[in-house]
Amino acid sequence: MQPEGPYRFTHMLGGSPVGKAWAAIDGQGRFATVAVLDAAVAADVKWRQSFVSVANALAQSSDGPAFTYADFSAASPWVAYPAEAGPGAARLFQALGVEYQAVDVAPQPVSGVPQPVSGVPQPVSGVPQPVSGGPPAPWAIHGNPIPGQAGDSTTQPVSAAPASPAGETASAHTVQMPVVQPGVQSELPTHDPFAAPVRRIKPSPPPKRRTGLWAALSALAMVVVVGGGVGIWAVTSGDPADPVPTPPVTSTAFPGEAQALPGLKPWAEAALRSPEERALAVAGPSMVFLEAVFTGYLRNKADNALLREGPVTVSRRCSGFVINHGGYVLSNGVCLQPPPEILLGGALNTVANVLVSEGRLAAKDLDAFVRDRLKTSAFTGKGAADQPELKLYGQLNVAKGDVTAAPAVSGAVVRTLPVEAGNLTLVKLAQENLPTAELNPSAVVAADTSVMLLGYDTTDTTYRSAEYRVETKTVTVSGVDDRSALTVYRVNEDLGPYSKGGIAIDPSGRVIGMVDSDLLRTDKANRILVPVSTMVGLLGAAGIGNDLGPADKVYRSGLEAYFAGDESTAAARFDEAAKSSPANLLAQSYREAAMASGRNGGTSDRPAWAVPLLAGAGGALAVGLVVLVVLVLGRRRGSY
């Protein structure tokens, strides 16, 4: 099964023990070769890292093929090369050091030995008709391809250690074209030694000279040469005098295993270069995965006796987004600042699961154990009067649970609104110059309108070290609830339990609401949107503005150029944004996409008359073809 991406595979070009090379075509009909690392091999971190490193090394070498698009974070990583670069996919496997076997496309030889024919050959009138050759290989066509409600409190089972892998490579692949051999013509004898002096059979007269046909062919060739030459000159002579320099390749299209990975791939979530992709690209870098870790002790309320020796840890995970480039993040209040009864329930659930694993409590009695102790127990700090210790961490891009060191960034709660006032929390992370989202205070959210949600979620079943990525979904506003002082919006779908604190965006990528739990539902699904006005109120009370940094503005101008087709300008601005705000991995990815597209034919200035001239040359070519066809058909009729 082909991996998710902008290409449709047409046929396999070759294979190796670690992956396959495919012929592919993108949404614009442009051809490419794609190297795909098998998912089972990619599960080995060393193989995946080698695949990434070799692809980048080839791209940066003087004679190596440069890829146009890649997805190194997919289950089956892949790299796409333009068709005109030749067998780029095969070269990648060869460079990995593995045996590569190309699919044999050579024509089969025709066996047999020509047999002599007795008798006198008779002359045949007419001229043999030309036979067209075989179809061209797809690599002769040049293309331009452009570069994924459980409760908030959960126990923490021990996760398995990650596996490690080995090294990689392949042989060059060449596409052979069948060669059409001209027919062998035997020379007719001019004299028959056994014949009478007088010829018994009169030879056919020689065919008429094709003066008109050859004249038409000559004229047509002249039109093609002149029109093509003028067209090429017109297209290439309009380069600007001072072009914007394209920055050198300094990083991969997607970061390697040792780096963080983008939490969201807008190009995989929406049609390529569509308004939806652009909106996701604007808001995506600002998403933050938050984990609040509470450490305390379970006590009996009556005498403060410990129910279990040693501290108990409760972890709560949710989404958030950067609201100010200085490191300020907005998220859900109950997730990061839960009331005491929620923390107590989480602590009791943790202890109950430990007792089950120790064989001291039957699994069927777990719920009863928690329920019976909710009213008689307390979750405190080291002292009975102390609060549990809170440590807060945030991660941008792809995140993992239970991470307290880099790339996780420590944080602290600045201010919180209670549930009835909006259920929001403002957090300050210990890192600045973070990619920031922009609020839309004037947004009007009405029933039956569509909005796009962004929030973190996971498919892993092991809670402790689960991996989280930004998910997206277009939903419909099913209703507006303005019965209380706080107006909220209800939507018809959600992204999962960890999307609480995520955002809803408008078509320009600006935030129009925050995702929260719908307490009126039995499943408490995250299908409520808290309005922007509530966020603005919290920020005002804390003295924090929704301020974009210089890197945010440059990144947005790069997106504007990229989606307008100005690849050179886009690449330069993405490069500046990526260097100024390293946490914005999408700036790096879009920089590589813009550079790849620019290498394969980005925008350039040309004379205004170039298009009409080319159109005229094309018209002349069409007329010449019509004349040629008429002459050929007329000649065929005259030969019968």
UniProtKB/TrEMBL annotation:
Keyword field: Membrane, Transmembrane, Transmembrane helix
Ranges that cross the membrane: 212-235, 279-298, 528-545, 609-634
Region (Disordered) residue spans: 119-172
Xref: InterPro entries: Peptidase_S1_PA
Record-linked Pfam families: Trypsin_2
Keyword Magnesium among record annotations: no
Biased composition regions of type Low complexity, renumbered to the chain: 119-132
Annotated protein name in UniProt: Trypsin-like peptidase domain-containing protein
